[in-house]
Amino acid sequence: MTRLDLDPVLVARARELAALAAQPVIDLAHRHTTVSVERAVLRLAGLTGTDPVTGEGRTEDRVPWVNRVVDAVRDQVGLEHGVALPVWHALTSGTAPDLQTLAEQVGAGTARFELPDGAAVERAREAAQAAAAEGIARIDGNRRRREELVATHGDPPRRPWIYLIVATGDIHEDIPQAQAAARAGADVIAVIRSTGQSLLDYVPEGATRTGYAGTYATQENFRLMRAALDDVSAELGRYVRLTNYASGLCMPEIAVLAGLERLDMMLNDAMYGILFRDINPRRTFVDQRFSRMVHARAGIIINTGEDNYLTTADAVDEAHTVTVSQLLNETLAKEAGLEDWQLGLGHAFEIQPEREESFRLELAHALLARSLFPDAPLKWMPPTKHMTGDVFRGYLLDGFFNLAGALTGQGILLVGMMTEAVVTPWLSDRDLALRNVEYVLNAAGNLAEDFHPPKGGFIDRRAHTVLRESVDLLERIADRRRGLMDAIADGTFGITKRPIDGGKGLDGVVELAAGAYNPALELLQKEASHA
Amino acid sequence: MPDGSIVRPYGDTTGDGMVQTSFTLPVPAGPKAEGAALQLANKMGIEPAMVVHSHAIDSGYTFFVVYGSVRHLVDLDAVVVEERAYPLLSSSEINGAIRTGLNRKLVVLGACIGTDAHTVGIDAILNVKGFAGEKGLEYLREMAVTNLGAQVTVPELVTRARAARADAVLVSQVVTQKDAHLRNTRELAAAFREAMGESRPLLVVGGPRFDPAMAADLGVDKVFGRGTTPGEVASYLIHALVEEPA
């Protein structure tokens, strides 16, 4: 495969600086928990369902039991020790026969939580660990099941995998559209979430039909779509992967649900929620570490969101911010136990088409990512910013995007729509877009074999310029006392400034006390150190 | 070019009326599907129509490309468009107008409200980077611009606007599913009316699917549609909020 011969000293320096810049974030994540991390523990232990007296009639507005229990624990004894000790202390001391009944006692207002002491601590820990281990075992079983199905049906016959989005708002409309897309050639189906979901501090339940510009991520929707894609995988003799979004305020819980329902890829970026959704940085970093540990265990490939920077910043001037973010995402992902094959690091084809040499610049940036992360699949995102409504020009641009993807060995290619910025894709838009990809991969899929940009040539020089700018920026970030967190507060990524104590969800962050216990974290960490 | 007020679409000969269109019918591919496409084209006024291409999508749908001559005429005299009621100003004219007319900075708040997470529109208008070769409002020295970003609640926006003594509030709405953009805009207008009455800031909304003629109906001062540039927005703010320079 085509690779640039990158200066090894620069590459090593970039990784070293990324690790330095990320360290304060990792330290922060070790010292804190969040309401969503604690709810994820209860989900692993099998607590499901919603409080029927909430929600004013709409099922998806009802408050899940995991929220009710965590809130009750927080009110009564605080979350500094985690939710597991008080909850399993209640269960082991005979207050309730099981977790579900305990949740209903919370609903009735009769549950009383306290922190165990003495021998009761060990009892509660053991019971909590056994309960969480059941969820982890189900995640492990799903990972094995995926491996079996891939062995039975087979992987897509070539790279890049073709990634297509469905987004009707109604899971029962999404399913036939997803199956049609798979039959037309899609290897990966992503169900876009309802726009508001990232700022909901609970995960809705049930099969939903009322999302806006997307469909709610719920455990039942996950299950229905995975089952439908299993059917179509068997029909096509090719394992069709399913993607959703572990981002927003419920990142850890969504990650757990993805593991429990055998999703295959999850969008999961270190900074996206902070920069683009104004979610509090502390909340994001704590939630993210836990979610990534779950993804690591579940064998899920994460997709990071660097393409987003280029929708607000200039794709040439700010190309290095993409590289910097990829390096930070990589270092944080590895700390959480993810392996190279699980890192779908993002980047995008967003250079202004009128700019001279724009395609060569795109190739340089794409090859830089390819060469810097040789074992990561890389997620290649289509043009959006310069899609003007001229659908004919858009179709041509998408063709060039597809060609760049093939030529630079991208792992996952998100199919561009000529009607980007006009309508949510029609059936025919998706079909035409897939025909575009099919033509390019068929006509030029192996062109990478003949494509060797010369050392010192335009592409090689441009890639090194971006790499040097990345090292400069990483140096400035690593110099800060709180590394990445100070850099985000200053508006280093995009123009938006996001102070460490600003944004949504900070009230859900809790500093851990001595003796705090999270059975899921313990099980996941044990596994990570084995690897 | 014809010189009268009646025109027809132009393919390669004046008056030929040629148009091209494409659509999908929920009909399996085949002669019957092509006949159905021709029937639709005829009902659209395309006659004679040619189905120049068709192909099956999945098993139950067919996609068509149709060329043909449309029999409708366009009467240019009957075309009504909203002409811009204010002059387009350059950056230095805008800064100058604020300095002389206001004698302080013009305070602008921007946001995406409701569940809309698409900041592309507001960013294109506000960010220094701008749009279509024009720099955004942040670039204008005499404007104090704050971009609150995505998914700002309406009550939060009212509070921030009051605290910042905003002269103008700019809101962009991209998501239009189930008319969310219209509903959100009405909610915005009502909240500002209730909280601040006559002293509310100038309310400006924009997005690709808005009809600029809807401002009064939505309860806002100005609606910008697809393709609006930062310069147009800035010029409007000067027109509405600052006395014109002599």
What are its keywords?
heterodimer; A: 531 residues; alpha/beta; TIM Barrel; nine-stranded parallel β-sheet; two-stranded antiparallel ribbon; 52% helix; globular; B: 246 residues; Defensin A-like; Rossmann fold; 2 domains; five-stranded parallel β-sheet; three-stranded antiparallel β-sheet; elongated
Walkthrough of the structure:
The complex is a heterodimer of chains A (531) and B (246). With 531 residues, chain A is an alpha/beta fold. Chain A has a domain at 8-18 and 153-463: TIM Barrel (Alpha-Beta Barrel), CATH 3.20.20.440. Chain A has 19 helices and 11 strands. In chain A, the strands form 2 sheets. Chain A has a 9-stranded parallel β-sheet. The longest helix of chain A has 35 residues, at 119-153. The mean pLDDT of chain A is 93. Chain B folds into 2 domains: 6-76, Defensin A-like (2-Layer Sandwich); 91-241, Rossmann fold, CATH 3.40.50.280. Chain B is 30% helix and 24% strand. Chain B has 7 helices and 10 strands. A 5-stranded parallel β-sheet of chain B has the order 7-6-8-9-10, with helices on both faces.
Please provide a brief summary of the model:
Chain A is of the alpha/beta class. Chain A contains 19 helices and 11 strands. Chain B has helices at residues 31-43, 91-101, 120-126, 154-163, 180-196, 215-218, 230-241; strands at residues 6-7, 18-25, 46-57, 61-70, 74-75, 106-112, 143-147, 168-172, 202-206, 222-224.
Approximate shape of chain B:
elongated
Q: Could you give the distance between the termini of chain A?
A: 28 Å
Largest sheet of chain A: 9 strands, parallel
Q: So, the CATH homologous superfamily of the largest domain in chain B?
A: Cobalamin-binding domain
- Counting helices, strands and paired strands, the structural category of chain B is alpha/beta
- The Cα radius of gyration of chain B reads 23 Å
Element string of chain B (H = helix, E = strand): EEHEEEHEHEHEHEHEH
Beta strand count of chain A: 11
Question: Portion of residues in helices of chain B?
Answer: 25-40%
Any guess at the CATH architecture of the largest domain in chain B?
A: 3-Layer(aba) Sandwich
